[in-house]
Specification:
0% strand; mainly alpha; elongated
Amino acid sequence: MVRNHPELKDSQIGKLLGTTKATIAQVRDRSHWNSSNLTPMDPVALGLCSQIDLDAAVRKASKDAPRPADSGPTLLPAAETQILTPAQAAPRDEDEELDAESVFAKLKSLKGNVQDDDDE
């Protein structure tokens, strides 16, 4: 409980587990007489408290905890990121044929530019 739920106060842990604040403080600072043999275990599995009680205590403790400071900008909403530009808004007609001559002319002009650069 001490390790997995640091937001819980000692009094809340004491009520859930049926122990004293002094024992919880000793476990926290590792001065408990049996601290070398203590291993973290689920209190619900051990039968020390119910899952409903644990969830209620964690929810109450997190409600009382201060909210973290604003860390800066966050992700944009999907509605803002999916705004289409005019070129994207009109999809290309699937039946539209490409003019092979214009495509090859552009390729030849690009190839010619590369050869001109090599001659220099």
